[in-house]
Design goal:
Elements (H helix, E strand, L loop, with lengths): L1 H16 L17 H9 L3 E2 L14 E2 L1 H8 L9 H9 L17
């Protein structure tokens, strides 16, 4: 999703610079294996793997580190998350009590 946003901004910028410039090629990205992300989250310390907890597909169930959730919630111009989305993030955070959840959020 971030890649799409960056590409859209590049295309928009190029369109305003010179109408004679050729358009950028369309790039399609297919993510076939979501497990690739698990390794990156663990490596970067964004998530941890609790012992013995797995998903239905056998992949490890990861918990988000509180610092990563706090950083994501503090992003400027962050879209408002629904109560359902906040509940889901809260349920998947390692120590949800250490996060200052947005007012009007779940379980208030």
């Amino acid at each position: 999703m971030a890649l799409r946003n960056v590409l859209k901004k590049i295309v928009a910028r190029e369109a305003t610079r010179s109408p004679r410039r050729p358009r950028l090629p369309t790039i399609h990205v297919d993510f076939l294996d979501p497990a690739n992300v698990d390794d990156a989250l663990l490596l970067l310390g964004i998530a941890t793997q609790p012992e013995g907890r797995t998903r239905d597909d056998g992949r490890p169930l990861l918990e988000l580190e509180p610092w990563a959730v706090i950083a994501a919630l503090a992003r400027p111009k962050r879209p408002r998350l629904s109560d359902e989305a906040l509940r889901e993030v809260k349920s998947q955070t390692r120590d949800p009590a250490s996060v200052a959840w947005p007012s009007g959020g779940p379980d208030e």
